[in-house]
Task: structure prediction
Amino acid sequence: MTSIKPPASVPPSAIAAVLGALLLLGGLDTKALGQSRGASHDSLAQVQSAQFGDARRAHLWRVGAWGGVNALGGLALVWASSRSAQSTRWHFGAMSAGWGLVNAGIAAGGLLASVPPPAEAGPLLAAERQFHDVLLLNLGLNVAYSAVGATMLGASYYGIDTVGRWRGFGTSLILQGAGLLVLDGIAFWASRGRLSSLLDAGVQLSVHPAPTGLALTLQF
Result:
C-alpha cells in the first residue's frame, strides 16, 4: 500500500525572506510617497501664506474704511449740530468721530507695519493662531462696548441730568460695537477656516518597515 506524504512545510527562513522583500519594496514606495507629500505640503503652505496675508490686509482696509466713515460723519454732525440745543446728536457725532479716528489710525498703523507672513507651515500656523485669538478677543470687547452703550442709553431714562450726553454716547457705542462685531466676525470665521486647513494639512500618515512588521507614523 502506497502512503501519501503530506506536503513539506515552508521553511521559516523562506517566509522571512519573502516578507523582507515585500517590506523593502513597501518602504521604498512609502519613502517616495512621503517626499511627494512633503513637497505638496510646502506648496500648500505657500498658498495659505498668501491667503493669510491678503485676508489680514483686507480686514485692516475694512476697519480703516469703517473708521474713516465714522470720523467724517461724526465731524459733520458736530459741525452741523448745536451742543446745547441738539445735545444728543452732537455727542453722538463727537463719540463717533473719536472712535472713527482711533479705528482708522489702528488700521493705518497695521497696514504700514505689516510684513509678509511666513511661508513655512509651523510659523504660519503660529501666526494664523495669533491672528485668530486676537480677533476672538476683539469680538468679546465689541459685545462689551455695545453693552456699555445700551446701559448708558437705558440709564438716560432714569433722571439723569445730562440726558443728551448719555443718549448720544450710548447710541454711538452701540453702533461702534455692532459695526466692529460684524467686521471682526467676518475675519474671525475666515481665519478659523484657514486654521482648520493648516491643522489638517499638518497631519501626515506614513508607513515604513519595522523589525516586526509595518509601522504607522503620524507627523504633525
